[in-house]
Write a structure and sequence with these properties.
By secondary structure, this protein is of the alpha+beta class. It has a domain of 217 residues. Helix content is 35%, strand content 11%. The strands form four sheets. The protein has a four-stranded antiparallel β-sheet with strand order 1-2-7-4, sandwiched between helices. Strand 5 and strand 6 form a beta hairpin. Helix 1 runs antiparallel to helix 5 and helix 12 runs parallel beside helix 14.
Amino acid sequence: MPDSTIDYAELADNIRLIASEMGFQQTGISEPDIGQHEAWLDSWLRAGYHGEMEWMASHGSKRTQPAELVPGTRRVISVRMDYLPTDTSMAKRLANPDAAYISRYALGRDYHKLIRRRLQRLADRVQELAGPFGYRAFVDSAPVMERALASRSGLGWIGKNTMLLNRKAGSFFFLGELYTDLPLPVDQPYTEDHCGRCSACLDKCPTGAFVGEHVLDARRCISYLTIELKGAIPEELRPLMGNRVFGCDDCQLVCPWNRFAKDTSEADFTPRHSLDQADLIDLFRWDEQTFLKNTEGSPIRRVGYERWLRNLAIGLGNATSSLPVIQALQARAQHPSELVSEHVRWALSRHSINT
């Protein structure tokens, strides 16, 4: 039963204030209900657009029914945190075929731990104000429909590129959630769609991964191919990937709303090891020990060294034909991993070199 001595409206205001002090740019509160997004997810899964991401189809209805995932959940507190590093020359890097392009969210330290720690601190502060309460924090780490919940809490709308868009901040931000049993007043769901007739994200996708508005076939998405796919990348998609070796930002880069994206103030999101300036050859020359050292605490670590080389081999196959590129590839032509060597052979063939 709700504690009748607590002013929950005032508590909600305090939660927003504390969250802001902790570096979150916006906070919203919603019912544990994702509305029509449940039917959309079911349709997307039945079409097989999730590819090898079996976890998207597991957990039964816990993904779409927050109170089943965490019994007793009465509200979801959604937060967002900007992550765009200052002046990372995204378009310039993409236009240079010899440069390695890494999605901007992955240039610094892994956001999961940082945001989870902040959410825990937020929960601790709420406990100081309201006494013990039930909660559980999530940061892209469980069957949680975070964009749907964020939209339901008023943080923005889901654009045609399936990203959460905010009129004042674009889409370059992370999301996190606190499932709680506190009966807080809820915010108005974001029901407007400000994409209008714009289709830039759909038109500019390098691999044509969008089946239609709001529908992404992950099996063609470069983020999926470079991060989630464990095996060989389909040959027909390799030339379309260009120099994108970990993730892809194209559908965000062309979004007009991202002219309002804010630079991050979080030091942990600052590029590490000059990854925002690295060339494909330099990264391809890393041995496994260097890879592990330079990706410690980074989202990049999750793909492992083998897939890292796979992705870079494709980038080099799409790079300028030059002696250094060919020599770098030839040095790994006999790599013990068939996954790596097959992609290296493909890359060399792109430069008319037979192995």
